[in-house]
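## retry 2 of 3
previous attempt timed out at serialization; input unchanged, resubmitting
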Amino acid sequence: MALEIMVTTPAIRNLIREEKLHQIYSAMQAGHKFGMQTMNQSLVDLINKRRITREEGLNRSTLPEELEQLLKSAPPGGPGAAPAAPAAGGTASPFGRR
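## retry succeeded, writing output
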């Protein structure tokens, strides 16, 4: 399952309070140390672990150009790369853990 995770850090709270919603995505990109990840970061991880194909990731991404850039900068196989797992049917929830 690919998912986005946003943790309500003081920086995120401040962006919401000041109605700077357009900056939240950038904060999520940089917030890995707080457990945050964007959908594209999640898709890169799944592609590197060979859980989904590159084409499937690009089809599911709302920002495929950014995904391509992330894939170019990610090492082949990536950390934790594993053999391909069979794809499961059904749809994943767009909501992450709270």
